[in-house]
TrEMBL record:
Its main location: membrane. InterPro entries: Ig-like_dom, Ig-like_dom_sf, Ig-like_fold, Ig_sub, Ig_V-set, Myelin_P0-rel. Residues 22-125 form the Ig-like domain. Pfam families: V-set. It is found in: Membrane. Belongs to the myelin P0 protein family. Gene3D superfamilies: Immunoglobulins. It is a single-pass type I membrane protein. It comes from Platysteira castanea. The gene is Mpzl3. One of its GO terms (cellular component) is plasma membrane. This is MPZL3 protein.
């Protein structure tokens, strides 16, 4: 899949690449040649729309990159390869839905020749709103969760300390010896004097009744 064995030149490319609108995508293409890399080496990328139609040249490399001067990919493709390391990849910094289609990577390094070349199908889609919301929610959780946990732990700790202090206050309370009683002391004195007065009056009454 995506590998073409030829007489003396082997080219490899990803059979399918998925991308999202507005997010950079790399179209990988690697090659292996039995001949030394020279200035004669050429890399050509072509494109065919998903709906079909004619092939369109979108990128050319020979010693230096040569982006297409016209067409739908004008100023939209950048060189991401390194021929010295057998890399002929390109990148689309901001893919669009209309970019869906087949990309073909062709490498020539005379005197090496090739028989077939691999193709890459690009599928560009939009990220859903649900994914964006879930990403934002995840970020919020990662940021605020530690703070919430710290606050909860502090509240629990404060509650425990409050209960301990309350229990100690109930169990350890003792009435001080110097505390003044709520009841007035003159009540007992008044009670004893009243009983003494009643006793004296009763004695006087007895004497008056029996003079002898």
């Amino acid at each position: 899949s995506g590998v073409c064995n030829v007489l003396s030149l082997e080219i490899k490319a990803s059979p399918k690449v998925r991308a999202f609108v507005g997010e950079p995508v790399l179209l990988k293409c690697s090659f292996k040649s039995s001949s030394p890399i020279t200035e004669s080496l050429r890399v050509d990328w072509t494109y065919r729309p998903l709906a079909g139609g004619q092939m369109e040249a979108i990128f050319h490399y020979q010693s230096v990159p040569h982006p297409t001067p016209a067409g739908k990919f004008k100023d939209r493709i950048s060189w991401a390869g390194n021929v010295a390391h057998g890399d002929a990849s390109i990148a689309i910094p901001s893919p669009e839905l209309s970019d869906n289609g087949t990309f073909i990577c062709s490498v020539k390094n005379p005197p090496d020749v090739y028989h077939n070349i691999p193709q890459t199908v690009l599928e560009v889609t939009e990220r859903g709103l649900a994914f964006q919301l879930s990403s934002a929610a995840l970020l919020s959780i990662l940021v605020f969760l530690p703070s919430v946990l710290v606050v909860i732990l502090l509240l629990v700790r404060m509650g425990r300390k409050f209960r301990v202090l309350k229990e100690k206050g109930k169990c350890g309370y003792k009435k001080s010896s110097i505390e003044v009683s709520d009841e007035p002391e003159h009540l007992d004195t008044a009670g004893c004097g009243g009983r003494l007065r009643e006793c004296c009056l009763s004695c006087v009454d007895t004497d008056e009744e029996d003079p002898y």
